[in-house]
Amino acid sequence: MKTSLTLQKQVLERIKAQGVKPMPKGYFKAREYLLWGLLGVLVAALAVGFGMIVFMVKGADMTLFAKLGLTATEKILYTIPFFWISATIIVATIAYVNFRTTRLGYRISIRQFILIAALVATGLGSVAYASHFSEFIDNIASENVPLYNAVIPLNTNTWFDPEKGLLSGTVRSKENDNDFTLRDPDSVLWHVTGNIVKPEGFTFGTGDTIRLIGTAKDNDEFRAIEVVNWKPN
């Protein structure tokens, strides 16, 4: 008992000597709210990531890949959304580390956290995909984030990668079905030529938005082999 009192006295004397002051209760409450708020943001990001994985996988068109002459390896690489899978794993890891710092963090094991995170991501991610929010994110990123287009090797959802044979845009002028100009999303004016195959009964004219499969040439020339009507994913 005497030893305990001596130790307590030493601790109190050290606290007094170092000028240590207790943190106000409000600080811990604010910290807890901040941690849970951050966790909410991370969960939302996790859901978006899962929704984008579904969106990218469903957007992969194997028939289109065959028309572009891709190898089996390229088809696999372009079908699996490695970027979004990696981003989702990173966000999930950060979310777990953040959760462990909360007052309830010690009560849930990593296995339980993974299960809960997977269920939440699947549920909210499916909603994001079904509501076309994933498509919205993809379009915004494709149009405004150059790095995004660099890490997505072939985004068939946007149909805009001339170097890989995909071109989309609005027809500006037209001589005939095999010779016309097209303005792409970057405002580049392409001269499109070729013996172009069209779906049965499909017609297009000036002002129409279309998709093209073919080969990009020099001087903004595009040799098209097929034209496809624009249909939202």
How would you describe this protein?
The protein has 233 residues and is α+β, with helices and mostly antiparallel strands. Helix content is 53%, strand content 16%. The protein contains eight helices and five strands; from the N terminus they run H-H-H-H-H-H-H-H-E-E-E-E-E. A hairpin with a 2-residue loop joins strand 1 and strand 2 (179-183). Helix 2 (25-59) runs antiparallel to helix 5 (82-100), helix 2 packs across helix 6 (110-130) and helix 2 (25-59) crosses helix 7. The longest helix has 35 residues, at 25-59. The termini are far apart.
Q: How many H/I helical runs?
A: 8
Q: Give the strand tally.
A: 5
Low-confidence stretches: none
| SSE topology string | HHHHHHHHEEEEE
Radius of gyration: 28 Å
Query: What is the mean predicted local confidence, pLDDT?
Result: 81
Strand order of the largest sheet: 1-2-3-5-4
Briefly note the structural class of the backbone.
alpha+beta
Percentage of residues in helical conformation: 40-55%
What shape does the CA trace take? elongated
Q: Distance between the terminal alpha carbons, to the nearest Å?
A: 75 Å
Q: Main β-sheet, in a few words? A: 5 strands, mixed, barrel
Strand content: 15-25%
